[in-house]
Amino acid sequence: MRQLRQLRELRTREGARERRAETTPITGTGRTRLDQPRTARPGLLSLPSYDPEAFGVLSERIARFLGTGRFIVWMTVVVVIWIAWNTLLPATVRFDEYPFIFLTLALSLQASYAAPLILLAQNRQDNRDRVNMEQDRARSDRNIADTEYLTREVAALRHGLGEVATRAFISSEMSGVRSELQSLLKEIEERRDARDPL
Q1: For the chain, how far is it from start to end, CA to CA, in angstroms?
Q2: Positive/negative CA dihedral, 27, 28, 29, 30
Q3: Residue 143: left if φ>0, alpha if ψ -120 to 50, beta else—which one?
Q4: Helix axes 69-88, 101-162, angle to 10 degrees
Q5: What DSSP assignment string belongs to 106-133?
Q6: What angle do CA 95, 100, 103 make, to 5 degrees?
Q7: CA-to-CA distance for 35 and 30, rounded, in angstroms?
Q8: What angle do CA 121, 66, 130 make, to 5 degrees?
Q9: CB atoms closer than 10 angstroms to residue 79
Q10: What pLDDT does 148 receive?
Q11: Exposed end of the chain (fewer CB within 10 Å): N or C?
């Protein structure tokens, strides 16, 4: 959502820049830029402008309301009151006789506005889903890259540990050194005993 707002702001800034560039004369000639499309002059015919974000939010609210049970209940109540008014009350106060053509027209009008509003809300949701999917894909790519890096690091550590002496290797070497020292001590004792008779 934040990325969509940033994109909209960037487009607005670029549009303002283009409008300024369009109205600035080319140096020396006094003419407007020819490489920019001409926009309508403000004095001739200006259509009302609207904020697409506010209109989108409003359409989403309406579409969300149209999909609730509350809307169905209210619509049913209105239709029942309409039919009861036009069948049970005196003919002087009835405004839509039996085929209920005005009711049909009102319901058709409501449906003709509801369908585009629902489609607009779905398009906005699709845009949000696409942005979320792109963010998830980027996050997934980062996770894969981190996992590959950690796998390489673990493999390098295993390779490095293969060359490092382990506790079992050191203890076996120490026991070998101990046995050699004991044999040397015995040999020294024997030589000493042989040289020094009591």
Answers
A1: 101
A2: positive
A3: alpha
A4: 180
A5: HHHHHHHHHHHHHHHHHHHHHHHHHHHH
A6: 85
A7: 15
A8: 20
A9: 14
A10: 95
A11: C
Residue 182: what residue type?
A: Q
The alpha-carbon radius of gyration of the chain (Å, integer) is 43
Tokens of 94: 């009835």
Q: How many residues does the chain have?
A: 198
Q: By 3-state DSSP, what share of the chain in percent is helix, strand and coil, each rounded to 5?
A: 75, 0, 25
* Burial (0-12, 13-18, 19+ Cβ within 10 Å), 106: middle
Single-letter code of the amino acid located at 128: R
Find out whether 40 and 46 touch, Cβ atoms under 8 Å. yes
pLDDT tens digits for range 145-186: 999 999 999 988 888 777 777 788 788 889 989 999 999 999
The low-confidence residues of the chain, meaning pLDDT below 70, are: 1, 15-47, 197-198
Distance of CA 53 to the CA centre of its chain: 17
pLDDT at position 38 is 65
